[in-house]
Amino acid sequence: MSDPITEASRKGFDPGMRFGRYEIVRRIGNGGMAMVYEARHIDLAKRVALKTLHRWLALRLDVVQRFVQEARTASRIDHPHVLGISDIGVEHDVPFMAMDLLEGEELAHVLHREGPLSATRVADLLLPVISAVAAAHEQGILHRDLKPENIFLARRRLRSEHPVLLDFGISKVRDGGPSGLTAADELLGTPPYMSPEQVIDGMAELDARSDQYALGVILYECSTGVLPYRNDDSIPDLLRMIARGGVKPPSTRASSLPRAFDALVLRALNVSRDARFPTVIELGRALLPFASPLVQAVWADEFGARDSAIPTPSARCGPGVGITVRRADLDVISCLAECDDAALDQLLAVAPTARLAAGEVLFEENTAANTCYFLLAGEVEVRRGDARATVRAGSILGGAALEAGVLREATAVVRVEATVLELARDTFGSLGERQPALAGTILDRLAQISIRRLREASLRLEELSRSASPRGRELAHLRLAIAEWSVSLDENVGPSRRRPL
């Protein structure tokens, strides 16, 4: 007479069946290596997720070793966003592990259902995961298979989504992990999330920066809805694309994304490991300003700035080089000159800055406008049709974007090497909650500029309407000044109409 456990292990366990100290409640999933059940620990009356290795795989020593390694590795990482392992063993020749029972869904399912996520939501979901990966790295553990399918968004009573990192099945432990599980030329993982060094050199030379690369792929996919590299027809061609690099910035696929977000993602995806962030904590530090105020507060201690002068990544203005801007550099903007240092330090902590060379494009006509720019140094030429106007340091370009999502009505090109500070609308909203006086000062200044331009435009339009032959160039410049508040009328069109407010 056959053993019922042995028979069940071939086709799956039925509800109510005893499995050692556990009672099967229901089947949750069936994967290539194992089945997962909801079960109840009989003595503790505790609900768990029970993962049982398929019986035909239990005959393979290497598979059993990896199964055991997954449990031991995950149990070493004491972190609230890593799946907890409470038990491991063998029952009737079936290896098993007992894990936290989670209710929710994989991040992959969310992306399939919702498509691209905002930079704020991406940061809120991924900062806990980055923290979990950092905790693994501190224990000498590389995950090596980071992807949306291995990030579970658990539903908790106090928080609607609690990201949890899963599946350390092909992880690597630097000190004392099972030896011989991965050959130097073996390629394990999920191809679209593999790092260039993994594709080129195999598994032997991987380090923490390879996990960082996979996080960069996830950030890209979450924010754009697509993978940075994809070739469904040929895995070898896909791997060659990854090894070659040259991915397009996320904002080319989702125009609302700030260039500072582009900069951090592209840095994590750099083909050269040395060009990536030194650690995933540094990646988290760059991502933190995009998170919601609550999430920023939760993770400020772990990912907060090391000092008050932070080199910020390139702004949303093309390939400009990110630089450090200090409080005194903001004095050129009249509305900021009298703000207190604490408020301006907060502004510098969340608003990226960049230095741009002559000829670089700050923004283009008919593109989404979700940011405005403080011109701290240099000159920018604003263009609309045949009209041209020079904007100098001290100006605020594209201020309307802080209050409403609009399309750019002009193109701005750097004329003389420029330093700009970018302020995105969502960042400005978060800043307003923490520094309402600063936000109010900026909004007051933008209102003054817009009122002044409209008044000047009305006076000039009235004058031109009385002319027998209105001058086309002046009308074009008038339209440009109305579209872009930073463009002054009196420099280019007729007598000055400027009056103090």
CATH superfamily of the largest domain: Transferase(Phosphotransferase) domain 1
Unreliable residue stretches = 175-185, 306-321, 491-501
End-to-end span in angstroms? 97 Å
- Major β-sheet, in short? 7 strands, antiparallel
User: What fold name goes in the CATH topology slot of the largest domain?
Assistant: Transferase(Phosphotransferase), domain 1
Averaged pLDDT: 78
DSSP helical segment count: 14
CATH structural architecture of the largest domain: Orthogonal Bundle
Provide structural commentary.
The protein is α+β, with helices and mostly antiparallel strands and 501 residues long. The protein has 3 domains: 4-99, Phosphorylase Kinase, domain 1 (2-Layer Sandwich); 104-303, Transferase(Phosphotransferase), domain 1, CATH 1.10.510; 321-483, Jelly Rolls, CATH 2.60.120. The protein is 35% helix and 21% strand. The protein is built from 14 helices and 20 strands. The protein has helices at 4-11, 61-76, 107-114, 119-138, 196-201, 208-224, 235-244, 259-268, 280-287, 293-303, 341-350, 425-434, 436-465, 472-483, and strands spanning 18-19, 22-30, 34-41, 46-53, 85-91, 94-99, 104-106, 141-142, 151-154, 162-165, 172-173, 321-322, 353-356, 361-363, 368-369, 371-384, 387-392, 396-397, 406-407, 411-424. The strands form 5 sheets. Strands 12, 13, 14, 16, 17, 18 and 20 form a 7-stranded antiparallel β-sheet that branches. β2 and β3 (34-41) form a beta hairpin. The longest helix is centred in the C-terminal third of the chain and has 30 residues, at 436-465. The protein is elongated. The protein starts with a helix and ends in an 18-residue tail after the last helix. Residues 175-185, 306-321 and 491-501 have low confidence and may be disordered.
